[in-house]
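Record pair follows.
FIRST:
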Amino acid sequence: MSPVDPRKSFPRRFVPPDAEMGRWEEVERVGQALLNTHPDSPEGLVRWLEDASELMACVFEERARRYIAMTSQTDDPDREQAYLTFVREVEPRAKLLWHRLDEVYLRNPHRQFLPERYRLLDRKVENRVALFREENIPLEIREAELKQRYQKITGGMTVTYCGEERTLQQMAKVLEDPDRSTRQEAWELIAGRWLRERETLEALFDDLRQVRQRIAENAGFSSYRDYVFRRYERFDYTPEDCLRFHAVVEAHVVPRVERLLRERQALLGVEALRPWDLDVDPLGRPPLRPFSHLGELLDGAEEVFRQIDPEFATHFRFMREQGLFDLETRKGKAPGGYQSELSERRWPFIFMNAAGLDNDVRTLLHEAGHAFHTFLTREEPLLPYRHAPIEFAEVASMGMELLTAPYLHVFYPRREDAWRAYRYRLEEILLLFPVVAMVDAFQHWLYTHPDHTPAERERVWTQLISRFQPVVDWTGFTEIRNSLWHRWRHIFLYPFYFIEYAIAQLGALQVWVDSLEDPRNAVSRYRAALSLGGTRTLPELFAAAGGRFALDEETVVPLLDALSAELERTRQTP
């Protein structure tokens, strides 16, 4: 593959250079010009599609910039207003414009003569047109406003600890303290802060649930779940496949996790494993501290990428030069992490809340995988084809976590510490599957029972905790346990976007198993698969990366065996 130049610019060819995409009048003017164009050949239609992609990219970048600004400081009223103004005034009209453009494309007689490359695009457009309802636009505005409110509430959460105001992300450090009473104190402070918002978040979710159900019904679906599967273009698996996967996780992963947690309990020497015992090193060793300031984090990550593929390091260095990061945690900043695309410039942006933890390294490597995916598809002229299905987009990030594992010594010069960090990665993968199954199963129930009560919701959630996380003792803290789902921002912000993590982890594990045999070839196939963007189906993308797309025992169990074998090997400190 030829190198990708991150500095290459893509000047506007159709959209006027001075057009402001935050003003609907200017978006409308350019959109109307597209609507008034009638391609009279397959070549003309291709050019028209590329012009439409350019306009969409310009508009989407404007939204992304405002979203990044808002999440970077949720307590800034100007940033909040700028984002909500776009959501209320530009986005609704733009959605109607995109729909009209889709209809124009489907009606064009030259569509049938386009090359085979455009077949997946046809499927996407046909699906969007089938789902579109104009009456849903104001409901989607309302949904965006409610989601922004969740960001604002959670972004403002702090506690006072040792006389200092700290964000909940900063408090995560204390949960790694070897002293159990210190951990419990910190955990109770964090949990108490979430409990203060319990009623607010319950009511907020009820509002979201009602809005989403109305959206589904307007589109002709009895449940929001079935609507979302179509909207997310889940053409290659069904809700039933997800439910069967939950059963596979329960049968084959949960027992392994239970053994892992019982071992932790024995090493800690405690009668019961409590919620504040999950992040501490079970042998009582000091917490891993991979960096003392953000410069060290960035330098280390760049060096790790250089070890894997020098081009990744070049892209990462470019991001540093262009200021395409917001990494430190602070009051008012939305929690979590994400990679966003600045679609017009075809650049990635990474957002996270670093607090000096080992988990911060994993998060940055994860989001960098998404960023490299963005770089590797930037030459693709069609915006829809620059984005792979989410299930494979997460292979990019989770695969990067595993491909970088042999190079953690960059952050941990002591071999013992690098070995610990590697084992933590493997444990996190095993622990991930029950969490995904639990949250996904919860959402399946939430949206197939749209008239449920908060009490019914709580009952189902606690049953799922017992099903997928049976070891942890919540005695005395049942109220906190019953509302833990409030912390999963995906439930509020990205409904049903969670099973992708498990599907992608299966793909990433297959890349990793290949890398144990031939790391150079595994990275080459990984990179080649990422460069395909959304031009292939989900099974084809998995195959390009050297894997198999499936959620069955035949796929899952051998990967669990390989993971368990490597975990067993890491029991011995080198």
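SECOND:
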Amino acid sequence: MKHRSDIDGLRAVSIIPVLLFHAEIPGVGGGFVGVDVFFVISGYLITALIAEEMRQDRFSLTGFYERRIRRILPALLVMLLASGVVGSVLLLPVDFREFSDSLTAAVLSVSNIFFWRQSGYFDDQALMKPLLHTWSLAVEEQFYLFFPLYLMAVLRWGRGRWVAAVLPVALLSLALSVYGVAHKPDAAFYLLPTRAWELLVGSLLALGAVPAFRGRMANELGGLLGLGLIGWSVFTFSDHTPFPGLNALYPCLGAALVIHTGAAGTLVGRLLATGPLVFVGLISYSLYLWHWPVLVFANYHAMAPLGAAETAAALAACAGLAVLSWRFVETPLRRGGSPIAGGRRAFGFATVAAVLFVGAGAAGHVSDGWESRFTPQVVAVDAMSGNRNDTLLPCHSRRPDDVAAGRLCTIGAEGAETSWLLWGDSHAWAMQQLYDEAFRSLGVRAVVASYDGCAPLFGITRVGYPGPCRAFSDAVARKIDGGGIRNVAMVAFWEGYYRDTLQADAQTTRHDREQTAAALNRGLVSTVTTLSDRGIRVHLADSLPGVRVNAPRALAAALAWNRPIDPRFTAEEYHAMNRDYFAAVETVQDRLASRLTLWRTLCAGGRCEAEANGLPIYFDSNHPTRTNFAFAADPIRRFLREGSGSVAMAR
């Protein structure tokens, strides 16, 4: 197969947005689509090689897998080894144990499944997982484990009608992806069945499913349109964009158009074949391997967002390591003369490497992240990241139908009339035990309706979020309509909705921070007013202050590294982040039966506390721990005890 420099340049177009997106450079909110472009390129090139060899009756499964080992494994293993060394020095026990598990998954090409199983609302932020990027390599390797076998079967029993055999599979995978984005977004993102169609787009091109464009103008316009689709995705998508699904069609079809027209010598093809882009494309695999762990370890060491100079230094390090990896690892193995260049030797090398790395991963797991590296105090602080009310999760994030039908958990005094509703988000779950104790002491009973990431407000839709927030709040309204509820306690991390999400109501005309704040304010005022007008007493809990980063990690790192790391917000910062919320509350203050303001106590000293009794009070950046938030018990009891009349402020 003739080498195409324009495809090398397209690799550069793929990796650069990924790099900038992961470095959190403004303006490239959709840089993640570079991975999808990679998938199309890979599907095209590998399928073209397989098909050519099969047509010439010289294809060998052993030879194919041996080439994949030499192409993928050496550079990957060098990166994994270096990451393991750095991680053993830098990572705290909880994080090193997770790293060890992901190391095993990466070597076995199942890291996409590993990170999918880890994913969820309380999953730690991506920028603290050094091997997260290996999920895409796992998708590719799983694809190429089965795809050659499928083509061989079609060649033998389907008379070589590859296009007719591949197209239905691609369409089915795309349909699964569309369904998955709406119903199982984490699975849709990570797993092969919902990603295979992206590689198959390239495969269909290589198999001749699309005839060559006739005429110079058609090719030129096709190349420009393809590059435009990729650029449009990079610059207009964001982390709120549902993905992959139909939105992944834009970068994938864009890549397909660029590949399909590039051989015709188009303007886009010539641009991509220029020296700098070709060089970046040649090192793109190594650049992809190295960029993510470098950025993760830099952020981990800083325990704060990187500044401009730090980001520039990290990107320079990524580039330097990529060049070294390409020059001294990738290139020699492609040219032969390596101890693993031969067939059986490659498989033997892969087996030995897998055993060694799996053993290292198992050692990190069974040693609880090699916690003997640190003092007992560091270990105890770090372990607070697991100090959660997981036994209460079955009561949480119920389906809207269950809410409307009253199939909910109840808390409080046994045998008492259920006249209270605890309505909230994950903070209602995290503090459910404290509310249960308070209700018991007051001799009352409550039903619990809480859902991760959904503000307890009527008429509000969270944009780009898979949770059924609007349907859930509608179901809560139907539950209240059923009668019996005379008190509603609204518990949520309001600050997070104003700061980190996009929300909309019937009056929203665009999706941005300003309109989100306006929609939330209208929703808060409307919800409190609606409930109050119906004679229901409303008890509103303000946001907890939280901290800048994961509290157990930051506090444990400060102890372990003997370095001042202060994750706390100042009281002024807390007020600034909650300014819109406070403004809305002021307009309905006289309609509230009581208001819980724990922040007054936590921020009384000018900085909002992150620990008590030498341990973190949050198990992440804002959710209270199960055992170290007891100081809130009395304020919560007073908060619930207050009835109608003048508003009581419980601290």
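COMMENT: The CA atoms of residues 90 and 208 lie 50 Å apart.
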